[in-house]
Amino acid sequence: MMETLEEAELCFPQINTSCRKHTRPQSESMLIYILLSFVSLFTVILNLLVIVSISHFRQLHTPTNILLLSLAVSDFLVGLLVMPFQILLTEPCWFLGDLVCALYYFVPFITINASVINMVLISVDRYVAICYPLRYSTKVTQKSVKICVLLCWIYAVASSFLFLSENLEQPGRYNSCYGQCMINIIRAVYLLVLFFILPISAIVILYLRVFVVAVSQARAMRSHITAVKLQSSVTVTVKKSELKAARTLGVVVAVFLMCYCPSYCVSLSGFNLTLGSPTSDFISFLPLSNSCINPLIYAFFYPWFRKSVELIVKLYILQPQSCEASLL
Questions:
Q1: Which residues contact 176 (CB under 8 A, 6 or more apart)?
Q2: Can you list the domains of the chain with their CATH numbers?
Q3: 131 and 209 in contact (C-beta within 8 Å)?
């Protein structure tokens, strides 16, 4: 009887070196699966709406929105490819084989790194727009932003192969038991520096500078609003739109930091979480949830996104010349 019970707790009862299953209540497991599946589906739909909106409507083809489009693509891939496999990783039993395990980690590594770099580019975009407004239109063009986005994705893909290539040579070599999905990240210290410490530091420094300049400009506009002439009122309007964009993207950056910092801090502290525990599942899924939150921020702060979603849902985009619709 004891032997049968022990075999029932194994991922692969016929193999002695098999990993053990978690004794998690079935109701709790079902709740986790349903919740994570809903978040995954919601992430795919929302980011697909962002991608279609910015890609289809010509009025939205601005340098800043191109960066948002790149971020939405990485968030879409997280919802489509990363989240479903992350649901499987809430249990220690991996049934898809060692090779699929090694290949799987390339996708989140690429998408998460691309998201981090996109956040840096967004911070640089707002920094130039607020701190150097007269140079913004000449320095930040659609062509230059597209080149930066392309380099961002090339860098994310190349770095993934650099840090994870060893796992493809002998898949499963780092598993402690049969049915586990573990990999080794080469040069983990360099990884933390390149993809966490340096980017996060750059984002924080740039947005602190943007915040200081934005506050000073807002005060200046309020103090001189009564003396503004017709010609300068156009300048004030442009500044207000840039400041509003900076506030919105500042919220995006702040939420990004709140979602990503806990998992990195746990990694830096060396604290080991019990696999399958609620805390471990929360820390693992928190960075991924940022991909679902970003479109919600756009919907709350950007009227053009709400209007474009309405046109998409009504299938207006199927009509000729729909790309010329006015959204701003």
A1: 19, 182
A2: 28-324 (1.20.1070.10)
A3: yes
Q: What three-state secondary structure class fits 259?
A: helix
**DSSP assignment of 151-162:** HHHHHHHHHHHH
Q: Of the candidates 80, 69, 205, which has an alpha carbon nearest to the alpha carbon of residue 148? A: 69
**Sign of the C-alpha dihedral computed for residues 10, 12, 13 and 15 taken in this order:** negative
pLDDT tens digits, residue range 299-324?
A: 778 888 889 999 998 888 888 888 88
Is residue 72 very low, low, confident or very high in pLDDT (cuts 50, 70, 90)? very high
* DSSP result, 42-92: HHHHHHHHHHHHHHH-GGG--HHHHHHHHHHHHHHHIIIIIHHHHHHTTSS
34, 105 contact by CB (below 8 A): no
Number of CB atoms found within 10 A of residue 195's CB: 20
User: pLDDT tens digits for 110-153?
Assistant: 888 898 899 889 889 988 888 888 888 888 899 999 999 999 99
